[in-house]
Amino acid sequence: LAFRRFVCLVWLLRPELLGNISLMQLAPHLHVTRAALSKMIRNFGDAYGIRNTLMKRESARVAYAEAQKR
Fold first, then answer.
1. Which of 20, 23, 40, 70 is 20 to 30 A distant from 52 in Cα terms?
2. Closest-CA residue to 45 (of 2, 3, 15, 1)
3. What's the pLDDT at 63?
4. What is the pTM of this model?
5. Contacts of range 37-43, beta carbons closer than 8 Å, 24 or more positions apart
6. CA distance linking residue 21 with residue 26, whole number of Å
């Protein structure tokens, strides 16, 4: 769990250290789903106001959420 959190933090702050790979590519190496990684990273990033270029924009997140509700 600690290693997973460390990798998520690195992906959020310095994605180039991991080769700018997507969460879809990273998840199998950590034995979790992409959604679980995304949620962990999003929660931490939202709490501290941190974003990176590989993450969806806030407007896209709202649009995806609206589509899921329909």
1. 70
2. 15
3. 79
4. 0.73
5. 37/4, 37/8, 37/11, 40/4, 40/5, 40/8, 41/8, 41/11, 41/12
6. 7
Q: Is 53 exposed, middle or buried (0-12, 13-18, 19+ CB in 10 A)?
A: exposed
pLDDT digits (tens, 9 = 90+) for 2-29: 999 999 999 999 999 999 899 999 999 9
- Alpha helices (H) along 1-70: 2-13, 23-30, 34-48, 58-69
Interatomic CA distance for residues 32 and 29, integer angstroms: 8
Question: What are the pLDDT digits (tens) for 43-56?
Answer: 998 899 888 877 76
